[in-house]
Specification:
Length: about 500
């Protein structure tokens, strides 16, 4: 016979997770399509600057997440968890759909990146209010000794949302020609989100308020000023700072290194073909996602702190060896070429370009292609112009592909260790009446600021190191997550105690 304490909790988790998954999907299709988006909303004369600008716009959504946490967290502690995260769902879905409707830079100039930035900020505000509501809602339905297990299902939604975004993008690319996808097909994943949001809204509308919050509200024990009680009270503020610097800061950089930086590194540093990267990352995520629940369950048995700090420590020690192995796995300089070069030609008369694609095979099955474009300058006599050579696009052989899947999967395991127990960890640190507000801020500062800035900062460090001719330039971007995670690990190890993390259990 099913335990009465967990009866109906699957319905709660399904409804909460569906909405949270969709919000993460909405948030991450921007990052998943960053390479394409950089050519649509920014000037095309400097691809590196355009890509960095896209990553900065992506990061902007993270930077405003703490403000969303404060605004919606306050509403959640005042009027309830359910209605607050219904509003965030609709706000996220609307902003995502509109990003897919913004005209390109060629059409409206600098208005395009400004509009995208504004919509990206709305996405960040919405996500800032969503996570705290969903995590709190599930935790307040779960038995106290099983919070790690039940809330870990919410933790899977971030990774599953990224996985779904990759699947939708791959499916769109498969259905459309490369030209059609580049021209307008990249907008389809943004448009699809509005349908998903409407379905989730209908599901959430039928949910009931958290029983713990309903009881507190009926007894008049809810907060009248959640912001003041959360951050104006020195005792509670101590826990907010401990949660941030001893846990979520390190968790944030490990999360974004293992998933987003890994994807960016494979595409822009190792130059692996985009579809192949999406496929191997999708496999690694699919294989790694169950471990969120494993480590959430384990945290109920041996404690949240032990598992989270172990995940941080493994990441600190192993990131550089992992990324060095990744880079060397498909390094063309270490492979033997075969004589299979070809020069098929094409042209784009509207842009006044002729291009040549040089394909090179290697003895181990690796393939690489380089596109050389000749652009005619109409202002010059005899149609003179200039040659521009693209970076080599690499297609890894079958053996190397599975090596990369394994190396990304290891990073996903680090993610599951630090992220699986975090929701229960945060819920148990704060009292019910200010829980939504108090837990949301450190979570979104740790993830939004420290984690969200990681792709842009790390890519910038790699770019600078490459320009400086550093032999191992590709490892420089890892200093940021290693340093931040090391600080968080040290603070958590010294200052976080079991008593601190179960004050309001």
């Amino acid at each position: 016979m099913r335990d009465k304490s967990t009866r109906g909790i699957w319905k709660v988790i399904s409804a909460s997770s569906m909405g949270t998954l969709i919000e993460w999907y909405d948030f991450y299709i921007f990052g998943s399509l960053a390479v394409v988006i950089s050519t649509k909303f920014f000037p095309s004369d400097n691809p590196t600057a355009a890509f960095l600008s896209t990553l900065a716009t992506f990061a902007a959504g993270f930077v405003v997440r703490p403000f969303g946490a404060l605004f919606f967290g306050r509403l959640g502690d005042l009027i309830g968890r359910k209605y607050t995260f219904m509003v965030t769902l609709l706000l996220m879905g609307g902003a995502t759909f509109l990003i897919g409707c913004v005209p390109s830079f060629e059409t409206i100039g600098y208005t395009a990146p400004i509009l995208v930035l504004l919509l990206r900020l709305l996405q960040g505000l919405a996500l800032g209010g969503e996570y705290g509501g969903a995590a709190t809602y599930v935790a307040e339905h779960a038995p106290k000794d099983q919070r790690g297990y039940w809330t870990s299902w919410i933790q899977t939604t971030a990774t599953v949302g990224l996985f779904v975004s990759l699947v939708v993008i791959l499916a769109t690319k498969t259905v459309l020609s490369p030209e059609a996808f580049d021209e307008w097909g990249w907008r389809v994943p943004f448009w699809i989100s509005i349908l998903m949001v409407l379905v989730s809204y209908q599901i959430r509308k039928k949910m009931h308020e958290s029983p713990a919050f309903s009881k507190a509200k009926a007894e008049g024990k809810t907060s009248t000023n959640p912001l003041k009680e959360s951050f104006g009270n020195k005792y509670n503020l101590k826990f907010v700072l401990l949660a941030l610097f001893g846990a979520t800061m390190g968790q944030g950089v490990v999360w974004y290194t293992g998933q987003f930086y890994a994807m960016s590194f494979l595409k822009t540093v190792m130059n692996i073909e985009s579809n192949q990267v999406d496929a191997l990352l999708g496999i690694a995520l699919l294989l790694g996602t169950p471990f969120f629940v494993v480590f959430g369950w384990l945290s109920d048995k041996i404690g949240r702190k032990t598992i989270m700090l172990t995940g941080m420590l493994l990441a600190i020690l192993l990131y550089r060896p992992i990324y060095k192995t990744m880079y060397q796995t498909v390094d063309l300089a270490s492979k033997t070429r075969t004589e299979t070069d070809g020069l098929p030609a094409g042209m784009n008369l509207e842009k006044g370009e002729v291009y040549f694609v040089s394909s090179t095979g290697y003895t181990d099955g690796t393939a690489a292609s380089v596109k050389t474009t000749y652009h005619f300058d109409e202002s010059q006599p005899l149609g003179r112009g200039e040659f521009k050579e693209s970076k080599a696009t690499v297609t890894a052989n079958e053996s190397d592909k599975w090596t990369l899947v394994f190396l990304v999967w290891i990073q996903v395991i680090f993610v599951t260790m630090v992220y699986g127990p975090i929701a229960a960890f945060l819920v148990e640190m704060f009292p019910l009446k200010i829980r939504y507000t108090s837990m949301s801020l450190p979570y979104h500062v740790g993830n939004g600021i420290f984690g969200g800035l990681l792709p842009a900062i790390s890519t910038y460090l790699v770019t600078n190191a490459k320009e400086a001719a550093d032999v191992e330039f590709y490892l420089e971007g890892l200093w940021y997550p290693i340093i931040i995670a090391s600080i968080s690990f040290t603070i958590g190890l010294i200052y976080l105690t079991k008593k601190d993390t179960t004050q309001h259990d």
